[in-house]
Amino acid sequence: MSNAQLSVRDLEVRFPTSRGVVEAVNGVSFDLERGQMLGIVGESGSGKSVTAKTLMNLLPRTAEISGDIHFDGEDVRAIASGHRKHFWGVKMTMVFQDPMTSLNPVKRCGEQISETLRYHLGMSREAALKRSIDLLEQVGIPEPARRVKQYPHELSGGLRQRVVIAMALACEPELLIADEPTTAVDVTVQKRLLDLLDELRRDRGMSMILITHDLGVARGRCDEVAVMYAGRLVERAETEVLFSDARHPYTTALLRTIPRIDQPSHTRLVPIEGRPPELVNPPDQCSFAPRCRHAQADCLEGVPTLTNLDGNREFACRYPANTEAGRTSFFANEAAGQTVTGLTIAQPSEVN
Amino acid sequence: MAGSGHASLRNSENVLLSVRDLVVEFPISRKERVHAVSGVSFDVAEGETLGIVGESGCGKSTVARAIVQLNKITSGVVEYAGTDLAQLEGEDLRRVRPELQMIFQDPISSLNPRRRIRDVITEGLSIWNEGTGSWTQERIDELMNAVGIDPKFGDRRPHQFSGGQCQRIGIARALALDPKVLICDEPVSALDVSVQAQVLNIIEDMKVRYGLTILFISHDLSVVKNVSDRIIVMYLGKICEIGDAETIYGSPRHPYTRALLASIPEPAPTVDPSEGNIIGELPSPIHPPQGCRFNTRCPHATEICFSVEPTVNAVDGNDHFVACHHPVEVGVSLPA
Q1: Among A94, A93, A90, which residue's Cα sits nearest to residue A119?
Q2: Residue A243 falls within a domain, yes or no?
Q3: Could you give the CA distance from residue A153 to residue A105 in angstroms, rounded to a whole number?
Q4: What residues does each domain of chain B span?
């Protein structure tokens, strides 16, 4: 795995707060090959955005970070402490969720893109503006020469997000991190933006990390998908493997809980009971155990480690779904009517 | 896409709420107006869940707010159980309001942060002078149990609950006055998927338990399909298509409905993914296009679409209506 472009090992991020230390990211490791698209999915508070911000060196100084991050063999955390100017924004860039807040409302779009080019590449004002127009054209904005003179509020949400993408691409990055890039836009716009990102990635051989809470988006676009829960990476696999044959009970529960367009109306949904755990002083146990239908007594003793199976999938569970151990544990819990953590499991006859 | 006309209205005694030619416009200057909703007609039968789906700016929330008279109606009729709500004023309107209750998108900001949740839920009953007796307290406990909030937490304040729990409290508040109609405006958009399923199940349970008629508004096509019996697709203040949930998803006829179904990350099998590649941007609702409002982006548009506004017409017989000059022919309607 040493030829991976991005390699993250045992990443931990902690935020000291008045209520205690929040363990936002807890032992996350993954590799990203050049030109690949990795999806990171999870719900609010799962640590996916904090992971991205750590990679981009955007966390506040109070954050306590440990672990290794290597990009093209270079130690990224050493670059951070060395205050190197032309790494973030040049080799590694990021697109954020809300295009309105990631653009400066009192500057014209052209100036904002030019700023990046002039700062990092030392371009002249004229050259930078000309290049900005090219970039807007590449991201599919009609009449780019007129748009560079407009302010962000004059553009629609979809166009604004394209301007943000143009800014991120200005210095031809090798890795683009997109944090919920389409959450704030409508479905037809979402499709066009994702198509655009796909196309740009292929044309430029760029790698991408796509962070999303939408499993459908991850399924349609990513080569590999990592699932996060409560600050930990609980499962990672090739996209089709993950969606057809998931191992972690959280992944399978998540897949079951989403209404699907191919189900008839009024199909009873299967919610995940309970709520995500607190990240302040979490107990030394599987963080999903209190909500898990497979949970056994030893799930409460120590955090399960990420098991790597033949390189293309890993998961952190002792009683994985779609395996013999998982089935046995679930049937035992079902017969008992509840799990070791007190989660009630309805008998099949009671499920309506 | 126009979508004026009454073809989709059912002439049945069972109809509880009927909206005819609803127009809502917001003036923005002396000359200009935002045409938020332009001539929308539909009806909701008792006990039915009607879903309204569409993208931002299509007017779906404005329709919901106009029904409960939170927006001033420019013209049109909102008939509830035989009375036109748009004509009611003052005390008469106040008397009808308990029958139509609403739950909102942001569960936390729709609850007063300074009040205990028991008081939040009881407020409607107190206003109607029913807030003191032990019967009321029993009713509140029953409601809280029904939505899955333990009544012993009644003294807590909204910030002590998660978003999903706050949305359940919002549902309990809406149900306290025993409404007939529940209007849900994007009730699960702000929630995580695992919590979304809990709230959707509760809405379904409450519908059965309290015999509700529901108007469910969402931009999420899979969510709308899950809860709805009948679905309206809107675009730029007009209705594109109305039909049974299975019909809309199984054999969509309007080019815009098809574009929506092709744009979602895992497209419906009934449409070709390329149909999702609609061009251009949403036109301004201040100067909506003449003729069919979808004409600037529609792959099937011809001359007539730019001059004549299509009306809502029945297709395929079974309660399926489309406002389009060139509805897409679908072969065999696939099982959804």
Answers
A1: A90
A2: no
A3: 7
A4: 1-81+220-336
Does some domain include residue A195? Answer: no
pLDDT tens by residue, A27-81: 999 999 999 999 999 988 899 999 999 999 999 999 999 999 999 999 999 988 8
Indicate whether A241 belongs to any domain. Answer: no
B107 touches chain A (CB under 8 A): no
CATH of the domain spanning B1-81+220-336: 3.40.50.300
**Domain count across chain A:** 2
Instruction: Please answer yes or no on whether B265 and A219 come within 8 Å at the CB atom.
Output: yes
The DSSP-derived string for A50-89 is: HHHHHHTT-S-TT-EEEEEEEETTEEHHHHHHTT-TTSBT
The domain boundary, picked from A156, A172, A188, lies at A172
> A150, A172, A194: which is the final residue of a domain?
A172
The rounded distance, in Å, linking the Cα atoms of A137 and A127 is 15
In a domain, A265, yes or no: no
Which residue's structure tokens are 């300074």?
A: B114
Q: How many CB pairs under 8 A join A and B?
A: 109
pTM: 0.89
Is the CB of A159 less than 8 angstroms away from the CB of B281?
Answer: yes
Domain residues for A332?
A: 281-350
Of B194, B246, B266, nearest to A219 by CB-CB distance is B266
Q: Which among B201, B246, B266 has CB closest to A265?
A: B246
Query: How many angstroms separate the CA of residue B259 from the nearest CA in chain A?
Result: 7
**Closest residue of chain B to A220, computed from CA coordinates:** B265
**Band (A350; pLDDT cuts 50, 70, 90):** very low
Report yes or no: A242 at the B interface, CB cutoff 8 Å.
no
Q: How far is CA A128 from the centre of its chain?
A: 32
ipTM reported for the complex, 2 dp = 0.86
Q: Quick one: pLDDT band at residue B133, thresholds 50, 70, 90? A: confident
